[in-house]
Design a protein that fits this description.
The chain is mostly helical. Helices cover 70% and strands 0% of the residues.
């Protein structure tokens, strides 16, 4: 099964405030003052500043890279319910960066973020259930979280969801639904889904294929127009 371990990809670092600061010369020309201000706000409990510090320490932007400090500030933001910080903290535990590797803790923080709709966390939580990392392997739960991420337009989740339909893992086997999700993933640029979509097509009758194509087009439009 082709499963991209998104937890080993770069941590999600997009935050509007940090981008705005970096975009202006004030940050580039006066990093110490920016960092001082961020720390001040963070110590006062401002969640966005705590998260920004986590990003800076994790990536060595304006500071010496320090994963332990990144964990510290991600945790503070995560404990205030900031979903992206919860996801990033989960990744730190998943990879063992700045903290002892702990898959159960990774699952804990992925779940908190996933329940708030954080798509990367939903995908990673599905992977954990699919592979039995930090949790008892549970294909039904994997299917549930892949679908949530797939419905948000996450191509890797769409591809994995199609695989689960194709093999009847966590769901009743369905070549029709496998085709639909492979077609959607392919339309979103997933190269391996193109190959699987064409294989699925051969397993459908001409009429069944026509109906699956219509359903895939309808669902693709719904997902991508949210």
């Amino acid at each position: 099964m082709y499963l991209i371990n998104a937890s080993l990809k770069n941590i999600k670092t997009i935050t509007l405030l940090l981008i705005c600061f970096i975009s202006f010369n004030a940050f580039a020309n006066d990093v110490p003052d920016f960092l001082k201000n961020q720390k001040g706000y963070a110590e006062e409990g401002h969640v966005w500043a705590q998260y920004n510090l986590g990003v800076m320490y994790n990536n060595g932007k304006g500071v010496i890279q320090d994963h332990k400090q990144a964990v510290k500030w991600y945790r503070k933001a995560a404990e205030q319910g900031y979903a992206t910080a919860q996801y990033n903290l989960g990744v730190m535990y998943d990879k063992g960066d700045g903290v002892t590797q702990d898959y159960k803790q990774a699952v804990k923080w992925y779940r908190k973020a996933a329940e708030q709709g954080e798509v990367n966390a939903q995908f990673n939580l599905a992977l954990m259930y699919d592979n039995g990392k930090g949790v008892i392997q549970d294909h039904k739960q994997a299917f549930k979280w892949y679908r949530k991420a797939a419905e948000q337009g996450y191509a890797d989740a769409q591809y994995n969801l199609a695989h689960m339909y194709d093999n009847g893992q966590g769901v009743i086997q369905s070549s029709n639904n496998s085709y639909i999700w492979n077609a959607i993933a392919a339309a979103n640029g997933h190269e391996k889904a193109i190959h699987n979509r064409d294989i699925d097509a051969k397993n459908l009758s001409p009429r069944g294929l026509e109906e699956a194509q219509k359903e895939a087009a309808k669902l693709y439009e719904k997902i991508n127009n949210k």
